[in-house]
Write a structure and sequence with these properties.
The protein is of the alpha+beta class and about 350 residues long. It is about 30% helix and about 20% strand. The longest helix is centred in the N-terminal third of the chain and has 32 residues.
Length: about 350
């Protein structure tokens, strides 16, 4: 919670805070011990073994093997403790629980734009429930920023053209500082905000107080208006890869490698569709670079995450999962037509300007 008092460490308000503080105190204690010890021995030996006269000749000193082993093994053991302890915390921070609540963050000079899954938007504030893991997917519209919450002991760079992941679980209701910890321009010091941790019932009431469309609904509209449906539906004239169940699936590329279809890959497939071609498809999709904002890309990806695999006419076999962004080679046999759910309005292919017939939404 924000406070005007001077503290040695910020308030502990997340599940990581105590672990990070204990490691920090261990590093500080080891550093202080050796600093004081080494400086103390330097002063002691400087006095004890000072040269008392020009004729003073010290006796020959024989090496001490036990002493040499000790000053090698002890610092090495202490260093291994630092490494193993730090690595354990790092891997825990890098592995969000599966039940984590998703929030999308876009950094921009000089503000934080935040979108919740249900469409609720915030600027320079993030409301979260206490005791529930929250997973942040972050990107930048301009320069490198750094999302830093001191009370939670978490920080991650927010990089343009890529997605950073960060997660936390708040343990105390209250209001906490949010900073940009990477110099990002003349108003860097003003790129601040607040993390507001609420009880679950209060958070549910706050979250439900919005008239915005959910991210998936906004992404579905983009999927139609940007012409994606013209190629990525089963009965389109120009056949693009099937997108049902695409998120989190393994996609085989033309070079024989396999990649997981997650946020970074789907974003790259939208902006640089020829970078990673799916096996069996040629590079006919133009780039959407400059045609969509980072927020719109996140909305479109959020919609693709909701697409579940559909079944064939037999009701047993699922359609194959492929990647976003390429047109299949002529000799590839088209996949079966998926079962239509709703009938959207007629759309046009924005890139070619040619009208397309109404397509069944996925």
């Amino acid at each position: 919670m924000q406070s005007s008092t001077v503290q040695f460490l910020p308030e502990q308000a997340s599940s990581f805070a105590l672990q990070v503080d204990l490691l920090y105190l261990y590093l500080t204690a080891v550093s202080a011990f050796f600093t004081i010890g080494i400086v103390g021995f330097i002063i002691f030996f400087s006095i004890k073994y000072r040269r008392r006269s020009d004729a003073d000749r010290p006796p020959m000193t024989v090496s001490n093997l036990l002493l040499e082993i000790t000053w090698i093994v002890v610092p090495l053991a202490l260093s291994f403790v630092m490494f193993i302890w730090g690595a354990a915390i790092f891997f825990k921070m890098a592995s969000p629980p599966k039940e984590s609540m998703d929030v999308y963050v876009t950094g921009k000079q000089w503000m934080w734009k935040i979108q919740h899954v249900n469409g609720h938007r915030e600027i320079n504030e993030l409301h979260v429930p206490v005791g529930k893991p929250v997973r942040l997917t972050m990107t930048s519209e301009d320069v490198i920023h750094s999302f830093f919450i001191p009370a939670f002991r978490i920080k991650a760079d927010v990089i343009p053209g890529s997605y950073s992941k960060l997660w936390f679980e708040a343990t105390k209701p209250g209001k906490y500082h949010l900073f940009c910890a990477e110099y990002c321009g003349t108003k860097h010091s003003g790129m601040i905000g607040s993390i507001i941790v609420m009880e679950q019932r209060d958070y549910d009431a706050w979250l439900g107080n919005t008239k915005d469309s959910s991210l998936a609904e906004a992404g579905q509209k983009l999927f139609k208006t940007m012409g994606c449906v013209s190629c990525h539906s089963a009965d389109s004239d120009i056949k693009g890869p099937n997108l049902e169940g695409i998120y989190g699936k393994q996609v085989r590329l033309q070079d024989g490698s396999v990649i997981t279809a997650e946020e970074r890959y789907l974003r790259e497939s939208l902006l640089a569709p020829n970078a990673k071609l799916t096996e069996g498809f040629t590079a006919n999709m133009p780039s959407y670079q400059g045609l969509m904002t980072e927020e719109q890309i996140l909305q479109l990806i959020s919609y693709m995450r909701t697409l579940t695999p559909v079944t064939t006419n037999t009701g047993l076999k699922t359609l194959p999962t492929t990647a976003l962004g390429q047109t299949p080679k002529p000799e590839v046999t088209p996949v079966q037509t998926p079962k239509p759910v709703t009938t959207p309005t007629a759309t046009e292919n924005k890139l070619s300007g040619s009208p397309k017939k109404s397509e069944p939404a996925k």
